[in-house]
Amino acid sequence: MLHRTQKAPLEAVEFLGDLHPLVEQLGSVEGLVTLAGASESLQVRQIDNLASLREFLKNYHTRILWPLELPAIQQACLHAGRNELRELVALDQRLGVEPILKNFLPASRRVGQAGLQRLRPLRDQRIVQRYLAAVDQGQAQGWHTLVYGVTLAVYSLPLRQGLFGYAHQTTRGFIHSAARSLKLSDADSRALFEELSAPLPAAVESLLAPGLVA
């Protein structure tokens, strides 16, 4: 089990096989970044059909989701569980210099900081209060992926499930945002989601340290 120095009250979590609502919100691309903005960051061609959507999502997975977002969530969760503020802030700052994430920063910061504010009442959670102070003082941005990882730690939610949940939510969100304009059928959307989800178990397991039960 992941070590937790403190745990939020169980009644605040209501964890019955589903992720905490705040985690679900942080993992959603709704209001985070537009499909056009994301494709611009990845420098892929205009998304105007199923094939170009598939190309975009594969690029997103291989260049952002797997190498940057999922590791950021994992590391933030571990740092939060150990009350490692310095390491968490350093991780926050490293994400800020990733060129490919430049277009994501304003929206990610908005969503992440909103999530942090919802954690503010948890006065006994030292890592939350210290990270909030670092964000308030301009030492950190409050990336939504890091707040997602911190939230997993605060509520003692399984890291493995959290990583899968984030990957599934963002992938499904991008498909959903494009489905209407591209006139995708439910069958096409479902097939694309299943295709893109197939490599996720290997990607998630590669992040989890040997012997870590999540």
Give a quick rundown of the structure.
66% of the residues lie in helices and 0% in strands. It contains eleven helices and no strands.
Describe the protein.
The protein is mostly helical and 214 residues long. The chain has one domain (20-205): Urease accessory protein UreF. The chain has helices spanning 10-13, 21-26, 35-42, 50-81, 85-95, 105-119, 126-136, 144-154, 159-182, 186-197, 200-207. α4 (50-81) runs antiparallel to α5, α4 packs antiparallel against α9 and α9 (159-182) runs antiparallel to α10. It is globular, with a radius of gyration of 17 Å.
- CATH architectural name: Orthogonal Bundle
CATH class: Mainly Alpha
Using only CA atoms, what is the Rg?
17 Å
Q: Count every beta strand, where a strand is a DSSP E run of 2 or more residues.
A: 0
Put simply, the count of helices is: 11
Question: Largest sheet, described in full?
Answer: none
Q: Count the domains.
A: 1
CATH topology: the name is Urease accessory protein UreF
Fourth CATH level, the homologous superfamily: Urease accessory protein UreF
Q: Which band does the percent of strand residues land in?
A: under 5%
Helix-residue proportion: 55-70%
Instruction: Give the ordered list of helices and strands.
Output: HHHHHHHHHHH
Kindly, what is the distance between the CA atoms of the first and last residues, rounded to a whole number of angstroms? 6 Å
Quickly give the structural class.
mainly alpha
Gross morphology? globular
Q: Unreliable runs, pLDDT <50, ≥5 residues?
A: 1-20
Overall mean pLDDT score? 83
Oligomer: single chain
